[in-house]
Amino acid sequence: MHKNYETPKYVVFNTLARDINGKALVTASGNDLEKLLSAYHGKAYQIMKVKSLSDREEW
């Protein structure tokens, strides 16, 4: 287990690249939204904000 691992604020998915289960692949992650938006723009990319388990709604 990584003790010093910090969860990124944002994750970028490439909706055109799929894994064997058909899920979009993670392309990048980071904390600077502006930098991610400038590098990954267009219909193929979706940037999602990461939430901790405690911040999520009940399933």
List keywords for this structure.
1 helix; 3-stranded antiparallel β-sheet; 36% strand; 59 residues; mainly beta
Structure, described:
The chain has 59 residues and is mainly β. The protein has a domain at 10-50. It is built from 1 helix and 3 strands; from the N terminus they run ββαβ. It has a 3-stranded antiparallel β-sheet, with helices on one face. Strand 1 and strand 2 form a beta hairpin. The protein is globular. 3% of the residues are buried.
Give a short synopsis of this structure:
The chain has 59 residues and is mostly beta strands.
- What string gives the helices and strands in order? EEHE
The overall average pLDDT, rounded, is 88
Sheet of most strands: 3 strands, antiparallel
The count of helical stretches stands at 1
Structural class designation: mainly beta
Tell me roughly what share of residues is in helical segments: 10-25%
Strand content: 35-45%
Strand order of the largest sheet: 2-1-3
**Poorly predicted ranges:** none
- The shape is globular
User: End-to-end distance, in Å?
Assistant: 27 Å
Radius of gyration: 13 Å
Strand tally:
3
Task: Please give the structural blueprint.
Blueprint lengths: L9 E9 L5 E7 L2 H7 L5 E5 L10
